[in-house]
Amino acid sequence: MKTISNGTFFNIRGKDLYVERHGPKDGYPVLYLHGGPGMGCYEFCYHQANPLSDKVRLIAIDQRGCCRSEMIQEDEFFSLHDIVLDCEALRKELGIDKWTLLGHSFGGFIALKYTTMFPDAVSRILFECPAFDFGLSAKSLLHKTSQIAEKEDMKRLVKECLGLAESDESTRELMMGFIELRPKLGEKGREIHEHNFNHPTDYSFYTEAEWEKFTNRSDVHNQRLMDGGLMFDSLLDNLKNIRQPALLINGQYDPVTCAEQLERFCKDVRGGEVITLQHSGHFPHAEEPEEFTNVVEEFLVREEM
Predict the structure, then answer these.
(1) To pair with 204 at 20 to 30 A between CA atoms, which of 40, 95, 155, 222?
(2) Domain count, the chain
């Protein structure tokens, strides 16, 4: 392995995986799984690495082919399962018996998949605004896009969003449709996912050229996941198999974890708990950082007792 300024590259299953580690070695081991797909762990670590590091042994990764991790090559096989297998290989590499998973958005999907495949490796699960079913999430995102468009008197966009959201299109088509329609809102598009803008992320640690390189890598990662199709399979039925203590942290204004998914979590996860932060959208860890840190630490301490 080789070390850089704030992270380490581990060769995991033949690829260099970017890994950040924060906090004491005897802290609660927590693996952070980022969303996007392809977002990387930079933004989460910017807001949470230092606050959590008093009690948490935080391990945060850029998933295979994302951002600072090694790029996926054109002739290289890659699927959603590779992300899960990478995490399990990293756990063994770090000598961790069991760890808590903290999955944000698409990372929640990965966390649930990992728990299904390797239940004995997981002590607890934290979901932050997860997407367990991308079809339901896409419809909710389209409805929120239409609400913002209506406020902006963008009648055609309202019609396009509602028409697609109320259609019988596949999960893939719903997601692709949302991705195509969102840019029509311009700067207002931020309001789909964000509610509280008081805690911006400083991305100046890397140059614009470096961020462009990271984004290009993530684009390959994203496209390959979409081409593979596994991310379009609903994992709602997997919720009933969770046996670990589980907490879902949601933002009051988050459109991704829609009502149907929250209802299934509450119904199917034995002892599962939901905490809603009142001034957040899709990024409670950044929009209400102190409250988020407190919720995570209280959950870990409570479940350890």
Answers:
(1) 222
(2) 2
